[in-house]
Design goal:
By secondary structure, this protein is of the alpha+beta class. It contains 2 helices and 5 strands, in the order ββαβββα.
Length: 128
């Protein structure tokens, strides 16, 4: 093992094979090639519902027939498009504060109703 200087900048590069004659350090290689760019794949909608490839049979709006995600070209246009059920929206969980506020409203309403009932009794108004 030997060490040589970079042919571009003069940095020392260690752990080279004994048969190495000339070397370029990693910094110079990066400056020549450039930093690698990560190509992030963006989501592109296909127009099909989520989980369509798990369905036993799915027919898209163009008439393409799929069995468990695999296209069946022989059956194209022979079946009506699959009807998609709308997604049920999940109800949000109430916070502890919201639960207490709702309970307070219910208690107030019950007290108001009891007070009205007593007032009606005193005024000789009965549930006619």
């Amino acid at each position: 093992m030997k060490a040589l200087e970079c042919s571009k900048c003069g940095r020392v590069v260690d752990n080279l094979d004994n048969s190495t004659i000339k070397v370029t350090c990693s910094y110079c290689v990066l400056s020549i090639v450039g930093m690698p760019t990560e190509t992030k794949q963006t989501y592109r909608p296909t127009g099909r519902p989520s989980g369509w490839h798990f369905m036993n049979e799915f027919v898209d709006k163009d008439g393409n027939v799929f069995h468990k995600g695999v296209e069946q070209p022989k059956l194209k246009g022979t079946l009506p498009p699959t009807k998609i059920k709308p997604i049920k929206k999940k109800t949000k969980r109430r916070t502890q504060q919201q639960i207490l506020l709702d309970r307070n409203k219910e208690k107030k309403a019950a007290l108001k109703k009891a007070a009205k009932k007593q007032q009606d009794f005193l005024n000789h108004k009965f549930g006619d």
